[in-house]
Amino acid sequence: MLKKRIIPCLDVRNGRVVKGVNFEGLNDVSDPVELASFYSDDGADELVFYDITASVEGRRLFTDCLRAVAEHIFIPLTVGGGINTIEDFDRVLKCGADKVSVNSGAIRNPALIEEAAKKYGSQCVVLSADVKRVDGGFRVFSHGGRVDTGLDAIEWIRRGINLGAGEVVLNSIDTDGVKKGFDLEMLQAIRVEVPVVASGGAGGISSFVELFREVPSVDAGLAASIFHFGEVRIPALKQTLAENGIPVRRV
Amino acid sequence: MLAIVDYGVGNLFSLCSSLKSLDKAAIVTSDPEKIRAAERIILPGVGAFGDAAEKLRKSGLDTLVREEAASGKPLLGICLGMQLLFEKSYEFGEHPGLGLLRGSIIPMKGTIPEALKIPQMGWNSLIIKRSHPLLRDVKEGDCVYFVHSYYAADCEDSLIVSCDYGRELTAAVAQGNVMGCQFHPEKSGKVGLSILKAFCEVEV
Q1: Taking CA A17 as the corner, what is the angle to CA A11 and CA A18, rounded to the nearest 5 degrees?
Q2: CB-based contact (8 Å) between B182 and chain A?
């Protein structure tokens, strides 16, 4: 049986992890390789590296760091942030990324999804959408959730899949940072035929139990701070999920 | 030395890195001399079957891989590379494969319950059908990472591992010196690395 995936997300600026994990045994809490192997050993099923750099020099440091991680960590790696062109896909895939997530870049130029899916395969192209409730509907926001695009989320995600996106990350702006659980209502509204990764709102182990129980169509749960600050350790999370009859991969 | 056959499909970064982490010397090459000189061969691949089979044929590497397999050299196909070992595939039409193993590649669509998503993408647990040196460090229930929409069928002669995705799907095969895994060992954590290591050391 296919397992539900648990995915820590790491923000990288100038080749270093921002908000590094603070655990015993980790010497350098902002070293991407050390952190990635920590999570991999703990049982993370996949890692997302999010490039929050704006400069050209920062981009280079990001790909250096990605390459170093991919040389040592043998689980799927997804890269997001600053993906605007097919050259950006090429740049990160060559450094060991398995999947590339597009957000604002695809809103500006939806053909990017199609071009990338044709060139690298749909399994490589992840559509990430930041979604917020507006006037009783679900609206897509761009630029890190700051700009209302006017796009209806359900229509946009469907269009992205038709263009070739092979996975969807649905990040609820409404629940993000609130730590009261994932946005179950929003996730239930997005029913699609490709894997869906829930993001935004994880507050503890119970958030994940609730997510996979209430929305069985969701394939994975993504979170950042609860993992980084040690509020949730992956072995304990998976233990509880297993006890609740949710299929997980144990290491 | 191990040769990874380069015929212009897929990203070989992780495969090379994983072998390097195991201290196994490997080269990515399309040079027939280097492939002949290698002790073992890996046939990688992602993408569509027809495309990949055509690229192998055009480069003449199909004949070479067949000859090397016939000579008894250990050969491991990964993902699409495993599918290419079989007689034929029904992905977008009908395409001949290398014919090293009996069986054909068929779509999940229509053969697994409709509620399940296609491709199968993610970690699934292994059901061991037959013990094999490749599995020396693999336990029943260990998980590996899959990304595929087609699978090998009618391959009872070579089936060694399956996984459950609405029905039992072929996960790994082996017959003599010809081996293959549908999943990505280079993306399957310690379990995957143990399989690659076993392939590098297996005596057939």
Answers
A1: 70
A2: no
